[in-house]
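Title: Prediction job returns without error message
Component: structure pipeline
Severity: low
Priority: P3
Assignee: unassigned

Description:
Job completed but the reporter wants confirmation the result is attached to the right record. Sequence as submitted:
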Amino acid sequence: MPRITAGLSGPGLIVGMPRKPGTVRVAAVADIHLGRMSHTPPLPTLLSQVVEQADVLALCGDLTDRGEPDEARELARILASAAVPIVAVLGNHDYEAGKVPEVKSILREAGVHVLDGEAFEIHGVGFAGVKGFCGGFGRRALGPWGEAVIKSFVNEALQEALKLETALGQLRSDRRVVLLHYSPIAGTVEGEPLEIYPYLGSSRLEEPLTRYAVDAVFHGHAHHGTLAGKTMGDTPVYNVSLSLLQRAYPDGPPFRVVEFPVEVESSHPAQPEAVPLRRATDHPAA
């Protein structure tokens, strides 16, 4: 499959621009942390902005603050009113209370497609999602050597990577999007203290992205990281942590919108590439 250049925008750029036939817009955000005392912007407001600008909403983990079912129920109540499909993965905060099955069930009952090694296709775009795990990047990544607890830690990252590879293998759509919580590359955690890089992601998550053609990767977790980067195979990777986007785009809705060309069921085929949509202050993924 030929790799596309996803038409990306800074949040808020494409407000009011008509949607073109043969394209699908995905809005992505992470680290909502619903349940904290102060929460901005109000989630219903964010959802109304998503509906104006996108066809699908992707949520990349830390949807709740402590993973409590009451937090999940409040989130589900709000998300149930969304007028667009929602695809999500969980994050480390969603695991804190040890009630992950209940949190997943509550969100799924509200219509959220929660992925944990599964695949989901809609509007011609396929989504593969896992939480991911930590361990570091490249030659400095933690290896499975020494104590059993270290081997177990590394194995967790390996299992997440295997789940991602399985999910990607299930997709049959021309466009493929990966949702993670942890980062698969070091590039999008730059800006965080060097000492915590190993806890923000794992390059083992990048390995499945080199075996399958993927159009874009979204993740969160690195609240002070970098907006965009690329894998070794040149796949765009976007850090969509809510607080990071709020700081980068204080005048716009805090989510990333990426536009993908898809085939339409008509006698007029879609254009093979999207028109790049950028604001002057945006920088392409590097």
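Comment from assignee: result matches the submitted record. The helical segments are 43-53, 69-79, 100-109, 148-170, 207-211, 242-248.
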